[in-house]
Structures are given as C-alpha cells and as structure tokens.
Amino acid sequence: MLCHGAVIWANQLTEKIKRKLSSIQRKFLLSITGAYHTSSTASLQVISGILPLYLTALKEAKYFKFTKLQEAIMVSNQQIDPTTYESIIKGNQIHPAEFNIDPQISKKEEQQYPIKNSTFTDGSKADEGTGSAFCYFDNTASIIKECQGKLHPDNNVFQAELLAIKQAILFHQNKSIPT
C-alpha cells in the first residue's frame, strides 16, 4: 500500500525520505521479529528477510515502468529494453459468451472407435485399491503390449494416471516394433 504510485515518487528519494521510510518500517519489523528496541533497523531487515522500503519502492517503480508503461529501465548500469522480451498473456483471449463449443464436441455416437496404432492409458482408485494400466495396438489393431500395475493405497487417481502415461511413454521410447 505504501508503494502505491512509486513510479512517480521513488526515483527522487532523498536521504531524509529514506530515513522516514526506514522509521515507518522499523515499527513493523520490531513487531514481526519480537526483537529488542535497541536492535538496529538494518539487522531487523536481515533477520526478517525484508528489503528496506526505499528499495522495495524502487523495485516496484521499475517493474511498473518496464511492464505497464513499456519503457526502458536501468539495472546495474545496463539499459533493458522491454520490446526485447515477450509479454505474458493473461486470461482468456476470447470472451466466454463468444466461445462456441458445439462444433468442437461431437455428440454423435461412433460405430467403431479407431484403435489402429493407438495407445490407451488409464488410472483409477476405488475402495479395492489404486491401479494404472496402458495398452498399445499396432497398425493391424492387435494388442502388442499391455501393462497393469497396482499402486499403494495412499496414491491418488492423478498419480495413477500419470504412472500409466509414463509407462506408455517409456514403452514407446524403448520399443523396436515398427508402427
């Protein structure tokens, strides 16, 4: 909250403002660490692992300037240009109301599911236990490899699924059968 708008004020910090920020931070550091009031602020910052407020404000200012304003910043006497970095895309790229899922999911029933040259994996968990399996069909739709495994009851279904996928990948990496 204190660093709000730091892009405007953090670059013109005087020693007087740095001392004021340090005195504000000191009260919180004493409360966090439970140290004696005679402890130095610098040692409290080291013990708690919290940067001095003026450095945090400078960091926030540079981050905002670089990411939001797309302006070059100086770090360790080196200029960093934001146009040389890929920006992170957050959120949906299409509004959910405009997303039409109907053509992406087929609702008609398949007469014959394609199994030629396919690998199927599965993991499951029930009261009886946890297990995983995979099977591989070649290009003539014959089962070439099947593998089943029982896991510890403490394993969850996601671990079982991942184990089946891992085993199938290992099989395909090591098989010498042409597909």
Account of the 3D structure:
It is a single chain. A hairpin with a 2-residue loop joins strand 3 (118-126) and strand 4. The termini are far apart. The model has no long low-confidence stretch (mean pLDDT 86). The protein has 2 domains: 6-84, no CATH class; 113-176, no CATH class. The protein has 5 helices and 5 strands. It has helices at 6-9, 15-33, 41-48, 53-67, 157-174, and strands spanning 73-75, 78-80, 118-126, 129-137, 143-151. 9% of the residues are buried. The protein has 179 residues and is of the alpha+beta class. It has a 3-stranded antiparallel beta sheet with strand order 3-4-5, with helices on one face. A two-stranded antiparallel sheet has the order 1-2.
Give me a quick take on this structure.
The protein is built from five helices and five strands; from the N terminus they run ααααβββββα. It is of the alpha+beta class and 179 residues long.
Topology readout:
Blueprint: H1 6-9, H2 15-33, H3 41-48, H4 53-67, E1 73-75, E2 78-80, E3 118-126, E4 129-137, E5 143-151, H5 157-174
Antiparallel strand pairs: 1-2, 3-4, 4-5
